[in-house]
Amino acid sequence: MTATTICRAWLVRRRDGFGLGFTDHDVALQFDGTTFRPDHGMTARVLMQGAGLSVDNSEAEGALTDGAITEKDLLAGKWDGAELTLWEVDWSHVDARRKIFAGSLGEVSRSDGAFRAELRGLSEPLNAAWGRVYHPRCSARLGDRACGKDLGSDSYTVLLGLEDCEDGRIFRFSDFPAYDSGWFERGVLAVLGGEAEGLRAQIKNDIALSEGGREIELWKSLGIHPVAGDRIRLTAGCDKRSETCRLKFNNYLNFRGFPHLPGEDWLLAPQTGG
Length: 274
Fold this sequence. Notes:
Mean pLDDT: 82
Largest sheet: 9 strands, mixed
Structural class: mainly beta
Order of helices and strands: EEEEEEHEEEEEEEEEEHH
Radius of gyration: 24 Å
Low-confidence stretches: 48-53
């Protein structure tokens, strides 16, 4: 490689297999079956990689364009955790290249028609805690393999047409099925149609109103606001308590907590000798 012919190339691949290639060279590059486009879909800052297990101090940034990475796809989480590989390439002879980064996209922020994403190196998972946590509440995620509960039944999922939405955060329905108030708290609201299709968020409050009405409040506003008539799916939530697992989901055999574990008050209480 010579310094005058060096450029950089990025390949970012989503979990569904869709991938895009970018380069800071002024013409397209091709290698490993990928075309790296010379546009502003993505750029990367100077990499600062350490020998420890901390996140590499780098970011990827770019424009939100229809032909590359769209705001809607980012809001829908399609690029969350996407794999990213960065090379230094001799554009005059692309076989002369070296990989300088491999990892994934972390936290993504958006503003003024652009995005910025943290780059996380391959060592990042080693920072996570491993092993079984002994806690009175369940450690499984509702509906995952450890939980084993099928949420596809009518008891735990409801499909509705949206009637009113306030600030992309509060959803109101006038004709709601007969569910207990709070049934969908900690659950998930997903948009199935319209401009906001694919967006989903966790439910903060589920309030039963008079005459069969319902108000669903999210923890944060959706990036694209649904409108009246859009199809909405609500999925029930779980507070991880053993009573909820047994009475609401009839799934106590799969409960992944330790409800009879003594609490801190018992552990700190003075012990009396026999």
